[in-house]
Design a protein that fits this description.
alpha+beta; Phosphorylase Kinase, domain 1; HIT family, subunit A; 2 domains; six-stranded antiparallel beta sheet; 7 helices; 17 strands; m7GpppX diphosphatase; Scavenger_mRNA_decap_enz_N; DcpS/DCS2; RNA 7-methylguanosine cap binding
Length: 326
């Protein structure tokens, strides 16, 4: 069973459905059945909680069924088309404190605003649980020796299985721009990303280099400056024109360590729900500036980043440290 119960939302015809009311396009029986199942749900434990997204993930069982279930509960965003209904006598206010011109209240609005999004996964498999397990992170200080001895061999082993985006017909529907350069070319692709709720203009794309030996940030040198400058300029122009967003509202960055190969650069609107950890995102503009100052900058420096304890790259790093000390 996999259902998504959302209350206080609009259906396809633009009609607002209040809490526990069946959408006009859904049968009344199916909604009642779903709510009946939830009444028999027995909580086992909380798997994950996120204050920033106002969501919680729990594990439990349904009465008479030993198979595990996962329920993802998340508060839904406001819909500006109906926000005026919040400021009515139907909303009950509870004063928390008052200080001069500042008032803070708990507000209990009409039921249409009390909706939450609830996704039920049942029966839940091991792979479903892995999506919601919080794995502890470990900081890695990667110097030149560690990179050459452990990280680079790992990157090479993974990159051998990487997809050729520049000559792959299956990605034609994702292509936003294809560079026609004879060498050092790239392709700009739409990047699969969860819908951002903070703005309707959010997008993310990535420019993938054609050079298979260009694996990551570590491989860049002053010789790559013409390529990087061309890539940044052309991608910003294309994305700004396509999505009607000023260049000043688009950021370009390289992640390290990379999650896929070959080398690629992300382009994303500045306004978004979440951001990549600060130690993993390297601004393309800053990268270009560093290479203009020191040609082999990224071969010299120590790069610091976090990895999950279960990450295969961390295993390679730890094995190298054991061999070095042994």
């Amino acid at each position: 069973m996999a259902v998504d119960l959302t209350t206080g939302s609009y259906d396809e015809s633009g009609v607002f459905n209040k809490h526990n009311e069946a959408p006009k396009s859904a049968s009344k029986k199916s909604i009642e059945d779903d709510m009946g199942c939830l009444k028999t749900f027995q909580l086992v434990k909380v798997l994950k909680e996120c204050l920033s997204t106002k969501s919680i993930v729990v594990e439990g069982r349904f009465a008479g069924d030993d198979r595990p279930a996962i329920i993802v509960i998340e508060k839904t965003p406001f819909d500006k088309r109906d926000i005026s209904q919040l400021f009515t006598s139907d909303s009950r206010l509870e004063l928390k404190f008052w200080n001069n011109i500042y008032g803070n209240y708990h507000v209990y609005p009409q039921t249409g605003f009390n909706g939450i999004s609830m996704q039920v996964i049942h029966p839940a498999t091991e792979s479903d649980f892995l999506k919601f397990v919080e794995v502890p992170l470990v900081m890695v200080n990667e110097n030149k020796d560690l990179y050459e001895s452990a990280v680079l061999p790992y990157f090479k082993s993974i990159s051998e299985k990487s997809q050729d985006y520049t000559n792959n017909s299956s990605d034609e529907d994702k292509i936003l721009y294809k560079d026609s350069g004879a060498s050092n070319s790239f392709v700009l692709l739409k990047d699969d990303v969860e819908k951002c709720l903070c703005t309707s203009t959010h997008f993310r794309a990535k420019a993938v280099a054609s050079q298979k030996d260009l694996l990551s940030l570590r491989c860049l040198s002053a010789a790559d400056l013409p390529f990087l400058i061309k890539l940044q300029k052309k991608c910003l122009e294309e994305l700004s024109a396509k999505y009607e967003v000023p260049v000043s509202k688009i950021e370009s960055y390289i992640t390290y360590p990379p999650t896929s190969f070959p080398f690629h650069v992300f382009f994303e609107t500045v306004e978004k729900d979440s951001s990549i950890p600060v130690e993993k995102a390297h601004s393309l503009t800053t990268v270009i500036s560093n290479l203009q100052l020191i040609p082999d900058y990224y071969q010299r420096i120590t790069l610091t980043y976090s990895l999950p304890e279960s990450d295969p790259l961390l295993n390679s790093v730890n094995e190298h440290k054991i061999c070095s000390t042994g």
